[in-house]
Here is the input.
Amino acid sequence: MAERKGNLQIDGLSSSGGGDFEKVVLNGKGTITGDVSADVIDVNGGGTFQGKTVGKEISVAGTVGFKDDVTAEKFKVSGTARVDGTVTTETLKISGHTNISGNVKGDMVNIDGKVTIGGDCEVESFDCQGNIKIGGQLNAEKIKIEVLLKCEISEIVGSEIEVKRGKGNVMKVVDNIFPTVLIADSIEGDKIDLDFVNAKVVRGEDVKIGPNCEIDMVEYRGTYTQDPSAKVTATCKL
Amino acid sequence: MSNELISKKDLLNLTGISYGQLYRWKRKDLIPEDWFIRKSTYTGQETFFPKAEILERIAKIQTMKENVSLDELADIFSPGGTSCKLNKEELLATGLVSETVIQYYLANATVYQDVFEFNNVMVMYVLEKLLQSGDISLDEGKMIIQLFQDYYLAAQAKKIVLIVIRKMGISSCVIAEKTDVLQFESNTKIVANVDFAQISEELRLKM
Here is the structure.
């Protein structure tokens, strides 16, 4: 019979050395000083994980700092999280503010808020409504970004790429004060549909450039459509 | 190894694959990260690839993907060992290593193993090739076994080469990173230069 693992619960201000648990719950302000793994890791309030964190389901509601890598099947942040290492997860769902210094690798990313990724983001599906900054490459099968304020992604590659302005009346108000734009060095994909994008190069099979784009160079192999209001310096059919 | 590079645009044109396929294969580790070489061009940053390697790899993926899933292909092409373990009879049945080499390996490896991991099989497979071809002697084979005793091969197999050298009848062998430039003193004969990336792939395809 499999040995039953224990639970770790920290209520208030306390710390633990880490270990292997069935469930880890932090209510208040807990610190885990070593590596920790658990089926479920639940943080309500504040917490710091100083070692590697591995969990089937990691859920953060509050403010948490992960000083090392995070590996999970499901990683959900509703609040503020900072990860100093890399994130490897099947599902990453962020509603709030998250800063990841390293790479993100996984299956599905869903963002509703503000996220900064220092390295690359390699996933199958990337869906973002909000403000995103990626220092490296965003590589995904399907990419859908609804831009809020100034977003920056160094390089975007994928099969289907769609960038639009975020929906809602609030966007119209925000637009008047702060510009809504996604800035990228290069965007490459099979099917590209862009609006509110400033990019140096856009390369693709079928490319559609919307009215609020400023692109230095568009290279396409299949079809190309450009809104008359879009500013495109040069186009080239490959 | 040829140093000729091919741009991503030319690669897609030449092979007929899409951006989606190329980057899907990258995400699955079918194409190594270090083959994506970024260079500045007049249109900004462009990605280039080592031409010979990428064309060969894409041809293999295109041929094999009809019958093998991408995850299985990843197991063949990605770095790191497989979980495969074979006992002596199973290994003999593959026909990859002869009984003589298995006995020879067991007699000279300091740790006896009832079950061979991919690491062990890889070393035996190399020994089989080098001994059969007459490139190395039995004593040189012992040196190679000894060298790999302390070396964790699986994680590094994609990056390393084994070089066996001989000078004035005295042999030695080294494990080096593929990218290292090794300079030997004059009159040193390179008896064998084994690329473990190729060996690893070859073996996984045959097993």
In short: The first strand of chain B starts at residue 5 and ends at 7.
